[in-house]
């Protein structure tokens, strides 16, 4: 089965067809691994027991878990897989491949554990593997996990870090996710800031970690912009981070720059709509700059270099 066939919604309408797609996705992945001459052990069932599968890559075995769901996976799903990994031979690691991605807290929750031994892959990684092969994708994932401590490094995060390391920017802004990066990028364009970059970290702990550890030039302003998630003391708790010039927390999340409260029944629709419409996003940004209800623009301008004349 091809990836395009797996993605075709017309052939996965019933609950049984959707369950079957999960099994087909697993077979698709192992077929792809074997096509690249990776040694595999496919999962199989014994009475009352599911035997995990895995791949032999760069000198060691990795357990593999594959899921195809409609919604991002909750952390409980990945914790279950991590339990399997922890129960194997010491030093065993795993690749979790979720077509639907992961909940916002998933990467952070796993990073708080005693050991980083599960690497997270998503649909973008699967699509990338179609182009460059799984050996390249997995090696990149392992590099970012080993060098940066990122168990979940989406392609956008990988590209952000590579860009940050390859060139000099006057302003570096670190945010949690892709939607945050789109929003903050729109603010930077509207404020006419020169020579800036937004680094998409793939989680709050990742953003804090990268902002406080990646090499930084002395004439660069580094700003960390985070959701408070209800923690109103966050700015004070993070004010002494190394390499970070300013932490700006937005209560309770960055989308509240446009909608200061979530009482409006259209709030969720509008928030999700921001991801699909750049013209709409730019309109909201212009309005947010004029109103500055949460004082975000005032705080941002206090640390940014002067606008172009």
Elements, N to C (H/E): HHEEEEEHEHEHHHEHEHEHEHHH
Sheet with the most strands, sense and barrel status? 5 strands, mixed
Question: End-to-end span in angstroms?
Answer: 57 Å
Instruction: Report helical residue fraction.
Output: 40-55%
Give the overall shape, derived from the CA principal axes. Answer: globular
Oligomeric state of the chains present here? single chain
Number of helices: 13
Task: Compute the number of structural domains.
Answer: 2
CATH topology label of the largest domain = Trna Endonuclease, Chain: A, domain 1
Give the topology, please:
Elements: H1 3-7, H2 15-35, E1 39-41, E2 44-46, E3 49-51, E4 53-57, E5 60-67, H3 75-86, E6 93-98, H4 106-111, E7 118-121, H5 123-132, H6 134-148, H7 155-166, E8 171-175, H8 178-190, E9 196-200, H9 204-213, E10 221-227, H10 234-238, E11 246-250, H11 267-273, H12 278-291, H13 296-303
Parallel strand pairs: 5-6, 6-7, 8-9, 8-10, 10-11
Antiparallel strand pairs: 1-4, 2-3, 4-5
Helix pairs in contact: 5-6, 8-12
């Amino acid at each position: 089965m091809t990836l395009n066939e797996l993605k075709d919604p017309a052939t996965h309408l019933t609950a049984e067809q959707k369950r079957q797609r999960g099994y087909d996705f697993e077979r698709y992945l192992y077929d792809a691994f074997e096509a690249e001459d990776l040694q595999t052990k496919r999962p199989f069932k014994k009475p009352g027991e599911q035997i995990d599968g895995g791949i032999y890559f760069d000198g060691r075995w990795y357990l593999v878990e594959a899921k195809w769901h409609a919604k991002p996976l909750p952390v409980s799903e990945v914790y279950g897989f991590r339990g399997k990994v922890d129960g194997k031979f010491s030093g065993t690691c795993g690749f979790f491949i979720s077509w639907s991605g992961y909940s916002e807290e998933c990467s952070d929750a796993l990073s708080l554990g005693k050991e980083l031994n599960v690497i997270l892959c998503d649909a973008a990684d699967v699509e990338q593997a179609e182009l460059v092969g799984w050996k390249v994708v997995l090696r990149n994932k392992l590099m970012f996990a080993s060098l940066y401590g990122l168990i979940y490094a989406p392609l956008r995060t990988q590209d952000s870090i590579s860009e940050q390391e390859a060139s000099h920017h006057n302003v570096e802004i670190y945010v949690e996710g892709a939607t945050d990066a789109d929003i903050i990028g729109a603010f930077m364009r509207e404020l006419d800031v020169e020579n800036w970059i937004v680094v998409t970290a793939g989680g709050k702990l990742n953003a804090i970690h990268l902002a406080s550890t990646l090499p930084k030039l002395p004439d660069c302003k580094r700003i960390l912009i985070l959701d408070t998630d209800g923690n109103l003391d966050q700015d004070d708790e993070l004010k002494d981070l190394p390499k970070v010039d300013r932490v700006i927390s937005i209560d309770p999340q960055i989308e509240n720059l446009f909608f200061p409260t979530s009482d409006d029944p259209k709030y969720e629709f509008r928030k999700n709509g921001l991801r699909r419409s750049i013209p709409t996003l730019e309109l909201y940004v212009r309005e947010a700059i004029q109103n500055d209800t949460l004082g975000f623009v005032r705080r941002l301008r206090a640390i940014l270099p002067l606008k172009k004349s």
